[in-house]
Amino acid sequence: MSNYIAYYFKVEPPQPGTDILIASLGEAGFESFVENEEGFEAYINEELEKNINLNEFTFEDFKFTFEKDKIEQSNWNAEWEKNFEPVLVEDLLLIRAPFHAEVKNVKHEVVIMPKMSFGTGHHDTTWLMCKQLFDLDLKNKSVLDMGTGTGILAIVAKKLGASPILGIDIDEWSAENAKENCIANGGADIEIKLGDKELLDNYKDFAVILANINKNVLKIQIPLYSKLLKADGVLLMSGFFTTDVDELEKFANQNQLKLVERYNKNDWAVMKLRKS
To answer: What CA–CA distance (Å, rounded) separates 35 from 28?
Structure first.
């Protein structure tokens, strides 16, 4: 299990600088971002952080400064309680922590204790992915959740009738946290595995694959997703900006995947693709 490094960025001017810098950091390995009036906070695995040199990040249209701090595993819950607010996906879904109040007149609820995991629904891409799950027919459909994080997408898929469901994550803490969250939300039968794409050698014919990662990883793994999908299966992916859609669509088309729909939220995008 790894510790994480928190970076506290001040960006001048805040826009479009914040969006541009977040996109660049996401491609460099930062995993989660919390925006504020002056800029944002960014979190990265301590091992990956060793390879980061922010002096290489230069931009003509804005300037940024930063401070950083190491977050020990024991302090992570307190850090999330400070930053984490409930996330409401229209009247379809409420994502909240146990210390938040319930909200009436919402069709589904997921209660998450994030620990050292990302994907709590704060990020626009998680919101987009959750929203699109409600437009899919998941009843008795097999689902793969790549980079499951807290397990949110797997849990929502379960609530919408999907079965069986497999979630995988390369981070030990995330995988353990996902298991706990699945059990707490009525998804004890969701299979969570620790590891990377090598775990999938004996799997095939998924009806739906969910991948909320980042552009560079998606470009590498799109051929694998196509191989794992059954004919007419659906790939729902996010973790990238609207400006990345054309590039990703090109890779998808080269791997029997055709863009069906795309949606945007605050410059982030989600793509729904179908295997031909």
So the answer is: 18
Distance in Å from the first CA to the final CA of the chain:
40
- Token reading at 99: 């210390």
pLDDT tens across 238-260, in order? 988 899 999 999 999 999 999 99
Question: SS3 of 194, please?
Answer: strand
Residue with tokens 């004890």: 188
Instruction: Give the C-alpha separation, 63 to 241, whole Å.
Output: 21
Hunting for tokens 């928190």 — which residue is that?
A: 6
Strand partners, 262: 271
Residue closest to 219 by CA, chosen among 190, 191, 254, 183: 254
Phi, psi of 275 (to 5 degrees): -80, 130
Question: 98 Cβ partners below 8 Å, 6+ apart?
Answer: 111, 113
Which is it for the CA torsion 104, 109, 111, 112, positive or negative? Answer: negative
Radius of gyration of the chain (CA): 18
4-22, pLDDT tens digit by residue? 899 999 999 988 888 889 8
Could you tell me the fold of the domain covering 118-275? Rossmann fold (3.40.50)
